[in-house]
Amino acid sequence: MAVVKATANDVELLARLIRAEAEGEGKLGMLMVGNVGVNRVRSNCLDFRGIRTIRQMVFQSPGGFEATQKSYFYQRARQSEIELARQVINGNRYHPASYALWFFKPSGACPTAWYNQPNTGRYKSHCFFAPTSANCPNVYGTF
C-alpha cells in the first residue's frame, strides 16, 4: 500500500530523480534517495511544509534537487528505477535514510549536523540527515 499518493507519472518522475541523484551509489543508494523524497512528501514540517505531491517535492524551489537542473534528469526512467521508486512509495525504508529529509555529498567527512538536523549516517559518498521526531512527527509516523 502506498504511503504517499502517486500516479504512474509520479512514479516515473521519482524514478528519474533517484537515478539522476544516485545512480553511482547503486540500488541501495538510489533507494535511500527515494526515502528522502517520500519523507519530504510525508513530513509537512521545516522546509517541506505544504509539499503534498511527488511533483511538488521534486521541483521544490528553493530547497529542491540539483539534478532537476541537469539534462540527464530528463532521460526516460528505466524499469529498474521505476521498481525502486515503487518500493519507497510503498513504504520500504533503508537506513541511514529511513527518516532523512536531506542528503548531500561532501568532499570529506560527514558533518555531525546539516541545517541543525543530526547526521544519521553515510552510505558510500552521501551523508543523510533526519529531523527529530519532535520537529517532524509525520516522518516517523506509522504507515
Structure, explained:
There is one protein chain. The longest helix has 18 residues, at 26-43. Strands 1-4-3-2 form a four-stranded antiparallel beta sheet, with helices on one face. A hairpin with a 2-residue loop joins strand 2 and strand 3 (117-123). The chain is of the alpha+beta class and 143 residues long. The N and C termini lie close together (9 Å). The protein contains five helices and four strands, in the order ααααββββα.
Instruction: Report the end-to-end length measured between terminal Cα atoms.
Output: 9 Å
**Number of DSSP E strands:** 4
Strand order of the largest sheet: 1-4-3-2
SS summary, helix count: 5
Q: Low-confidence stretches at least 5 residues in length (pLDDT < 50)?
A: none
The global form is globular
What percent of residues are in strands? 5-15%
Mean pLDDT: 95
Key phrases:
4 strands; alpha+beta; 143 residues; four-stranded antiparallel β-sheet; globular; single chain; 5 helices
